Amino acid sequence: MAWFKREKKAIEQPTPPDERRVKTEGLWIKCEACRAIVWKKDLETNWQVCPKCQHHFKLDARRRLELLLDGRWLEHEVAMASTDPLGFTDSKPYAQRLKEAQKKLGLSDAILTVEGQLAGRPLVCCSMEFGFIGGSMGAVVGEKVTRAIELAIEKKLPLVIVSCSGGARMMEGTISLMQLAKVSAALARLDEVRLPYVSVLTDPTTGGVTASYAMLGDLNIAEPGALIGFAGPRVIEQTIRQKLPPGFQRSEFLVQHGFLDAVVKRSELMLDSVLRAAGLHTALYTSPHLERINERLRLDGEDISDAEFTEAFERLQALIERLMATGELPAHPTYFECLTAMALEVFARRQVDFAVFEVGMGGRLDSTNIVTPEVAVITQIDFDHENFLGHSIEEIAAEKAGIIKPGACVVSAAERPEARAVIARRAAERDARLVEVDTAYRIEEMQTSAGCYRAVISSAHSAKRVELAPPLPGRFQVRNALTALAAARLLTERGYPLDDAAIARGIATVRWPGRLEKVQDRPAVYLDGTHNPAGARELLAFWDEHFAGCRIHLVYGAMRDKAVDEITGLLFPRAATVTLTQPRQPRAISAGVLLKMTRHLNDSIEVAEAPEEALEDALDLAAPGDAVFATGSLYLAGDLRRWWFARRASQAATAPSTD
User: Fold this and answer.
1) Element containing residue 160 per DSSP (H, E)
2) Nearest to 405 by CA among 448, 354, 368, 352
3) Tens digit of pLDDT for each residue in 192-237?
4) 3-class secondary structure per residue, 570-581
5) Could you report the per-residue pLDDT of 47-89, keeping only the tens digit for each?
6) Using an 8 Å Cβ cutoff, are 282 and 352 in contact?
7) CA–CA distance, 375 with 409 (Å, rounded to integer)
């Protein structure tokens, strides 16, 4: 017999053997546009929009309705399901395909038709499901859309249809093609009774759906980058025997050529995003702009239209001329004053629930300071615009604190003790309630993923906790999110319908182009608007935390009125190479002057006057494991952003087709 004998049972394992493994499969997704590896949870909280490049992934039909509608909805024609009238079989019987799709998705067919509310307004909405046999349109899809139109007519409601489809369903042959005429005729009746129809085209919208209801809206809007067309590009090229232009059949190309009314992103700054997440009709005024001046005036997360901007400018110009003619206005208002007046007038006309105004250069004498806010927010204070604001932190803080009104609520994220003292004194003089984020809140936990941070926040005087996950790179964004949380909670106290869930949701969907915006992997490419010493220090911290040991290739261009000596003194010695350029702005410092000022800071400095040439030069120097950062001015970030995405669209259009 064996010389040993087990007398006791084996140690009981609390976890089954098949679960004693680290499970990572499915936690990360590679973005098909920028190739970045994105944490799946971040993608889900951002409504399936890549936080790196803003590529829009597909949404399923139910998730789409959650994004569009307020709360619950009533679904119609729940049990209506397709049959197999032709007994169609390809690699498997059509009847089997239907059963598999129905079982997998829990849907009877490729569309949901519902009644619900959008921003408090009742409507009828259809949402297509691409996962159900490619979102193809057969008899059931055509019939459900037709009945949805008839329901809208009966109840005198507007209609919204979200298309995501490969076209007509070939398994039903001519029956599927008949739906084009049927739905188009129903939409003609909707038009006769003067009810609005909004068509939302997502990626992809092709074939018979494009040829029928998708392009017949009173307003046709599409998501960024959506493929929209009847036939595939390869078929078209073979038919016309010509090369198609760059970006052909993508939503941006179609809106430029008049086939669409607008390209609309799913999610767009923090406080504005929080307010919208709570269902409020919001306006946002910021400066400067990156690519288009319209960016400065936003309504419900979208840039003001060209037509509305033009109309507002014409009204303002007529008023200015009249006041100057009568002597009531001694001089023409400045550029910034005109834009501020336009924002105030447009937001009042639109009767928004809430407007967020970003102060311009200072505070006390800023054009925006005629507003008496529900909550005033003062962010980090550092040296910037010293010629106008003062040459000490105390002087600059006093100018910033000029936005504090008598009896107001104030949130301060200032860290420097001398700035905090000035703000506290000003708040006390104005009998204003001051909330300092460093004393009112604490960070209990923090995690990082791909340069972005999520943190668990608790109040200093309660056990209430909330998780904030801004989808923006940089540790400093947690502080920005904390500031937005503090402001939003003050608004809640003043009667606005904001709960912590809405606050977290709004912060999770915020977008801030041009601020550590990653546009490519291998080599990593970031566009950044850092234009002051405080921002340069944040950028250095980001490099140290995420790019330690990496070669960094810096593209730099700045305005003449910035602290160029201090910023370049911080950044240039850390970079492996520096390429100097200049934004396309009259106030930009020339690349040649920059070279004379900074050549002692780095042994590898080159000059390229055109921003895009400078970025291409840096890319040529970079190995796949390196990083390229273009920074120094928001105007530079805007120039490069415009060029980068036009270049990417051109490359996508000329890539070999997969049709």
Assistant:
1) strand 159-165
2) 368
3) 998 999 999 999 999 999 999 999 998 888 888 899 998 878 888 8
4) HHHHHCCEEEEC
5) 788 866 778 888 899 988 887 887 678 999 998 998 888 999 9
6) yes
7) 5
